[in-house]
Structures are given as structure tokens and as C-alpha cells.
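Forum > Structural Biology > Help requests

Title: Can anyone predict the 3D structure of Amino acid decarboxylase?

Hi all, first post here. I have the sequence for Amino acid decarboxylase but no way to get a structure on my laptop. I'd be grateful if someone could post the C-alpha cells.
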Amino acid sequence: MKYSVTKENYTMIADVKIIGKDLFIAVTGGDNPHIGTVTTLTKGTEIKTIRYPSHDGRFHKDDVLAIRIGKIIQDYLPGNCTITAGVHVNHISKKQIMVSGQMAKSLGDQIKKWLQNANFNTPNPIYYSDSEKPV
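Reply #1:
Sure, ran it for you. C-alpha cells for Amino acid decarboxylase below:
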């Protein structure tokens, strides 16, 4: 699935990949898409983020976008979810910064709507019991 929203002369994209019952979401956009942050969550765990250093030594702040999306979809997740985020607009304006939160909300709402109707009928993994061992 691929979702996008365009405002103030740039586009933000959420590319959603289904892996079993888990989701991998890559949020990118602007002039220089990248991976600035990695955010993880499930329906029952708190959201956690790792922020990578940028080219100038500061840390990326794209987790603001990922966390906004994560909070919208968290209650509808069938399994684990990892969101990478990296949106960079060259010489970004204050107005472009301000609409980025609205854009992330729109992406989260689109993914939530899809999750509410998605079918994740994949078989559950089978594990050995404590008394069993591989042959």
C-alpha cells in the first residue's frame, strides 16, 4: 500500500509493507528522502524511537511524524510495527514545517482506515513446547 499527501509544494509518502501480521512503514518525502528515525510500536507497548545523526551532527527529528502516525494506528495494529521516517525539504519554510504535522495525521488516518478493513488471516507460528526438541 502506498499513501501520500501534498501540501505547501511538497509531498509526504507512507509506503506500507505487510510482513505476516506485522507492518513496515517507510515515511519519506521532500527533496531528500532518507531514514532519519526508526520508531517501533505494537498495540500493547509504548512507542520507542531511535534518532540517527544527520550530516551536520545534529539528530534527525522525523520521529515527530512517525509518532503522530503511530498514535493514530496503534490500536488497530495486528502485530508489530516499525516506522522509518525521513522527510527533508531544502530551505523549508515555517509554513511547510507547520503543515508537516497535518500531513502526517492525514497519512495516519489513511492507514487507519485501511487497517480497519484489512484481513490479516495468516497462520500463527508454531513453537516447540518446553518438553519438545527439534529432531
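The CA atoms of residues 118 and 126 lie 23 Å apart. Residues 94-117 form the longest helix (24 residues).
Shout if anything looks off.
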